[in-house]
Amino acid sequence: MPKVVDRAQQRRDIGAALLRLLAREGLEEVSVRTVAAEAGRSAGAVQKYFSSKDELLRFALDLTGERATERLLRVDPAGPTKDVLRRYVEATLPLDEDRRAEAVVWAAFAVRGALRADFGAVLAEVDREVRGHLAELLGAALAAGRIRQDLDPFAVADALIAVSDGLSVRLLYNPDDQAVLLTALDTALTALLGAGTDEL
């Protein structure tokens, strides 16, 4: 009886090896051969799923975006808006090994996205999804009178994405400042939401 191969699982396993390699060595070191070595497979086995470096990189970008989106969807939306937003932003920050690896990959792709429109489009789509989630949450809080009525949910969502991006970069090169930077997140949330609600 022929062996049944779970192609989706094989791609995920190769993808996990790819993300490890990207986080450790950077984009320049990615090739079918180096990913195969990291995954403990032959180059031919990897080429069954990815025929080129570009295909590998695009898969890594998609996988990183999917993981970030899944984490955001798991954030508990209950509680004061400021606390919920803090949990959303924390879910995007490199505060553990997996998220750190993803943040390294994301930062590398941000640079590549400035030079390659196809990569930039994927990054922009993830930003749009995150912006939509945040604006929906803020819109519900606005409708319920839990935040200031003059706030624009989309403008606040854009500001939160900018705060998240900045904190992520700083945590990558200075992880020892985690406590200081999380305090800065609280300061930013208070500044964005303002005073005058029962949540602050």
UniProtKB/TrEMBL annotation:
Endpoints of the signal sequence: none
DNA-binding region coordinates: 31-50
Cell inner membrane keyword on record: no
Span of domain HTH tetR-type: 8-68
InterPro entries for this protein: BetI_C (IPR039538), Homeodomain-like_sf (IPR009057), HTH-type_TetR-like_transc_reg (IPR050109), HTH_TetR (IPR001647), Tet_transcr_reg_TetR-rel_C_sf (IPR036271)
Keyword Heme among UniProt keywords: no
Source organism, top-level taxon: Bacteria
Gene3D superfamilies xref list: Tetracycline Repressor, domain 2
A GO molecular function held by the record: transcription cis-regulatory region binding
Keywords from the named record: DNA-binding, Repressor, Transcription, Transcription regulation
Protein name, UniProt field: TetR family transcriptional regulator
Species for this entry: Solihabitans fulvus
